[in-house]
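Morning!

As promised:
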Amino acid sequence: MNENERTQEQYDEMYRGESYYWTVRPSRTCFEVLERMPPDRPLRLLDIGCGEGRNAVFFARNGYEVHAFDISGTGLEKTRRLAERAGVSVRVFQADLNRFRLDETFDILFSTGTLHSSDPSVRAELFENYKRHTAAGGLNVFSVFVDKPFVARAPDSDPNTHLWRSGELFTLYHDWQIELCAEEIFDCMSSGVPHQHAVNRLVARTPASKPAPGGRRAGGGAE
Ligand SMILES: C[S@@+](CC[C@H](N)C(=O)[O-])C[C@H]1O[C@@H](n2cnc3c(N)ncnc32)[C@H](O)[C@@H]1O
């Protein structure tokens, strides 16, 4: 069994049963999207590593066109059921983020608690793909687990993952407008054992237009 199969099996096992391991309450990072890019026109959003669907379904209920993927088939099945119960549609598909690359554009790329599963050796290329497939003026909104020497690894963390270096994610967006870059440490009770997580939260917006030769934005007015 390879690393990805082990990860998939571990999450399938966690998601077995009727209850929702990560609850059905949306992550607070969702509200960054609602506030900064409300669905006052049709907006396509991709949830990367959607788990059991708490965030994807929240976005669908709020009027976004939601696509979502995860490595866990059991998680995707629960996402479908949660969407059905809420009377909304979420287009789910199974994929491994280390292999899957976007070939269509989204207004918003969103992910919480998943991107530490990206292999550090593919991160630069993976995020170039994500950035290239974000619509002009669109957002990338990510929350990633980071390594802090004074925060112990979570008891239910996947041993195949690679915590981010604190600040690493922000540097990948040096050429976008960073609207939020924050580091937080919070208490968590997943698995029933009290522990902490350190996260970096990023909201980055792609430039609405490409810089014109000479450095000015096309169509830009006086400063
Ligand atoms: C901590 S959970 C977070 C789930 C969800 N984003 C949430 O906030 O409720 C991490 C998720 O990443 C998924 N995952 C792990 N490795 C993955 C990979 N290589 N490709 C796609 N998804 C993966 C797991 O199946 C799991 O659902």
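Residues 3-19+27-205 form a domain with the Rossmann fold fold (CATH 3.40.50.150).

Hope this helps with the figure draft.
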